[in-house]
Amino acid sequence: MAFRHFIDGRFVESVGQVSFENRRPHDGTLIGRVAEGGRADVDAAVMAARQALHGPWGALSTDERCDLVRAVADGITRRFDDFVAAEMADTGQPRSMMAHAFVPRGAANFKAFADLVRNIGAESFQTSTPDGGGAINYAIRKPKGVIAVICPWNAPLLLMTWKVAPALACGNTVVVKPSEETPGSATLLGEVMAEAGIPKGVYNVVHGFGPDSAGAFLTSHPGIDAITFTGETRTGTAIMKAAAEGMRDVSFELGGKNSAIIFADADLDGAVDTIMRSAFLNCGQVCLGTEKVLVERPLFDRFAAALKAKAEALRPGHPDDAATSLGPLISHEHRAKVLSYYERARADGATIVTGGGIPGMPAELAGGAWVQPTIWTGLPDDSPVVNEEIFGPCCHIRPFDTEAEAVAVANNTPYGLAATIWTRDLARAHRVAAAVEAGVTWVNSWFLRDLRTPFGGTKQSGIGREGGVHSLEFYTELRNICVKL
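Predicted structure:
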């Protein structure tokens, strides 16, 4: 396959004719070559996006625009199998996960934001004036302009549409830079945009890398009005520096080292099942995943044994195999990083409850980026394994004795993205949830999302909030109009 840029409503090769390989992470075989965008390609995409703002797209009413955005959702549903196949090829994750969670959320994002923008209001005030005549102040929302959308590789369609859907519903145009690891869904969405009747230039895709490639050229481009990014904190820092030129707005969802706090009165089966998902889903490559598990001491041994059994029951395999419950890491490069933490845990004296290496795989899958799901205990609180984001299928389980201790350990991190708390004590659940420094905290659940709620991280886990009306605060400019009566 050839993955080309989608610029001004058509697929094009790079001006410099440069490309790179895209390989399947489950077996290392070649999917195809991807056009690598340079400065000229980014210039063309930004120019097309800016022209579209003042073309037919900008002339549409809110209802007309939201109808088109909803048509994109219908297009994803019609091409459902194609998106599942693209996501499976790029990520190596099982069909069950892509078909039942990640791809449906891509369509749901367009529906949710189309309906929200169609029905949202704006504030107005009756204002007293010295002459007694009064005035009316009212706010209107206008699109922010051309939005750079920088996407991660761990849930390509879901996280890309989480940004593109509200941006388009609000009347902006976008230039998307998908991860170099996962070009498939963003490319396929270009076809769906055209089929849905989205005017040319509204949705653009430029493939490439970060530094000295499409990512850097896009985030530093003077024609970009705002930047939204999901990825690691170091990259977010570099993008923020670029955004300072021209005072562009940013919305960041960055790294995390998320905790679970499990009290002795918790539903043990429910907690174990949930932490199995939050630690190992998507081979641990989930920004909201749990890598620090804090268990009240009376429950500690039972919980550790039960989670060990769940981890050892996971079955790595081909994404099309219905028996597969664990996919690979995204790349051999990322596997080297994850395995370096596995080795560090061993060197720091961790007790390896299970895993810690590379699973034996059949010959046809031996070239994949496989690692074992891994559980440790016994590491000190200052260990890098306990404090740094690993982004692999692993977690460290630590006992605690008091509520205050659990909260202190959970908050002892530069990150603050997500947490999950397990207890039957309702008062304690509310108390601890308020004390944990995280943008999203679940009680007796995980990954339960209402798209109307605010989403984002605290501390080094991000800037800004998205979801519901909170997305509108980023993707629109509020303007006030004062009318003297």
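Summary: The mean pLDDT is 97.
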